[in-house]
Amino acid sequence: MNGSARPTLSALVVVHDEERQLAQCLGCLGFADEVVVVLDRCSDRSREIAAGFTERLVAGAWEREGPRRHAGIEACGSDWVLEIDADERVSPELAAEVRAVVAGSPAGRLAHGALYRMGAKRWGDQRVHPAVSFSGAQGATLSSPIIHYVDRDISEMLRRLDRYTSARAADLRDSGDIGSFGGNLRRIASRFCKCFIGRKGYREGQWGFLIALCAALYPILSYLKARLDPVPEVSAATELRHQEFE
């Protein structure tokens, strides 16, 4: 794409009022050839903070995650894209691994889709947990994890669960198939085990238990809201990105 022998990397960060965490996130991305920040309806100091790290700013208002992400992807000018959220941090070990992959991998995507060749990823149109599709082969998963700071306390976690289940309920209504009470009830146990045991949430102790519990309740709460709540006016503020409750 860039006409040079050395493949290049864009780091893409999409934010909405993230002044509390944005500087720490962007400060970890110096290994990228460029940093692109999408500012979605920001009313805090996010733009000022982002401007201290990059000139590649895309400001606007998007109702859903897919168009918001694609606006950022289209602004990237590199061969590879690394998508990072404001509450995530790239360690020096992960940065080195990413650069090594960009330099020599024949694959189209790695690390569960966070790192991919330009043009290899498409976001879906759902309000919450948007589906993604890929073209090209998937490479090996990167060994260094992304450091993730999600919620400050339990109350914030529960408020996020409330927002996400409301948005998911709207998606279910739009689909015309909200599922069944029994089917979603049975998912409580399977999702808890998947999160707490399969994904080794037990290593985080009581916090891991709480995260697994929220993940287990996510489908049944979404179903009940879709089934029992009055149909709300869904504002742009409720269109949410992918998080741990998937």
Overall shape: globular
Number of strands: 10
- Could you tell me the strand content as a percent range? 15-25%
Average of pLDDT = 89
How would you concisely characterize the structure shown here?
This protein has seven helices and ten strands. The chain has 246 residues and is α/β, with parallel strands linked by helices. The chain has a six-stranded mixed beta sheet.
Can you tell me about this structure?
The protein has a 6-stranded mixed sheet with strand order 3-2-1-4-7-6. Strands 5-10 form a two-stranded antiparallel sheet. Helix 1 links the parallel strand 1 and strand 2. It is globular, with a radius of gyration of 19 Å. It has 7 helices and 10 strands. It is an alpha/beta fold. Residues 234-243 have low confidence and may be disordered.
Structure characteristics:
246 residues, two-stranded antiparallel sheet, 6-stranded mixed β-sheet, globular, single chain, alpha/beta, 7 helices
